[in-house]
Amino acid sequence: MNAxxxxxxxYGEEMQFVEIELDPYETVxxxxxxxxxxxxxxxxxxxxxxxxxxxxxxGIWDKVFSAGKRLLTGExxxxxxxxxxGTGKKRVSFxxxxxxxxxxxxxxxxxxxxxxxxxxxxxxxxxVSVGIEFSRRLGRGFFGGEGFIMQKLxxxxxxxxxxxxxxxxxxxxxxxxxxxxxxxxxxxxRDVDYDIEMIKGVRNMLFGxxxxxxxxxxxxxxxxxxxxxxxxxxxxxxxxxxxxxxKKKGEGSVLGGLGDLLDGDNW
Length: 267
Hints:
- This protein is of the alpha+beta class.
- It is built from six helices and 19 strands.
- It has one domain: Mitochondrial biogenesis AIM24 (Double-stranded beta-helix).
- The chain has helices spanning about 55, 60-70, 140-145, 200-205, 230-245, 255-260, and strands at about 5-10, 15-20, 25-30, 35-40, 40-50, 80-85, 90-95, 100-105, 115, 120-125, 130-135, 150-155, 160-165, 165-170, 175-180, 185-190, 195-200, 215-220, 220-225.
């Protein structure tokens, strides 16, 4: 194996975190903002790119180009590496950014590559390459929600994704098709054919309330789907805050909404 072999334990239900156990000189890489806690003896280092073995052996301009592509996904040029520099076993933990589930995936069991949302990656064993996947299809680019760019994770180590709500894994047979809300798609394996289709029927388009497009995925391969995309959660929070003006006095009272109506601020 090229990637480091790490052990892990996932804790929690709605707000999970993953604890990575490192042997001496093992390393885990992560995007900025996911770190939660670590044992004494683990060294933290900011690295250019993703720290994969492929990048370590590349020239300076290859590294600059590789890191620069990460800017297209909205990520930083740099990642953080956590290395066990002592003896025995040490642990470092990474937390979910919002309510959902952490998905551990072994790339050796997934033909060495998965494609996922650009914000789904949480952390991985050192040696895994974190890159970008361009779409050559205009439909996916303009209407797919994720644009032309998604993340691709390649290698032979463990990676950890995070997604909102409940996560469902679907195994698609050859030619089997699944239609998914574009925001609910988390990721898929390399052989899955992914495209965007328009909802049929003028009435459905105008009054269906489900958007104009959905993702069409055709097997063979695995697909991961989330029940609560962060964009949907954020929209509900913003909508509620506008509706109640940041406060809801009637909640929990006998009068309920009538109390809000009679409140002087509403006159």
